[in-house]
Write a structure and sequence with these properties.
The chain is mainly beta. The chain is built from two helices and eleven strands. About 12% of the residues have low confidence.
Amino acid sequence: MPDHNSPFEPASIEPAPARNQPAVSGESANEGAYRKAGWRFSVLGDVRVDGVSGLDDNLKVGAALGSALIDLTSVEIGDLGVDVRLGVVGGGATVVVPDGTTVVDSATVLLGSTNEKLAPASPTAGEVRLTGVVALGDLKVYSASTRPPSIGDRLRKRFGKDK
């Protein structure tokens, strides 16, 4: 009779739980796994985070062969600040913060450049801390008032507002 305490013969074998199952229908298994880990991630595409409601103090954004835009202008930063962790390879990252926000940039940029155009900091506006890596691309950090106009903004200015 087999010894059920033996490491060679388990007493019972249960099926392993399914791994990397999509969290949302139409979503790939990898996208579901990243979402569960708290990442907003895209491959061969762009990630855009703006108009965030219920933002916790830790935002993780990644892109491979695409760009990331994090627009925090409509977010209440608060006393504890916000940590933004970047993981971008083969594309750029742009972070836009409310005017007066202090930005602590500890992100590493490999084979790219960092461009910061910020309005003067205010001690009551909060702090955004940038960490992570941007490789083969640029990291651009703007305040709401120093951000260059988008293509859509320039087209609306040139051809008039939508009717």
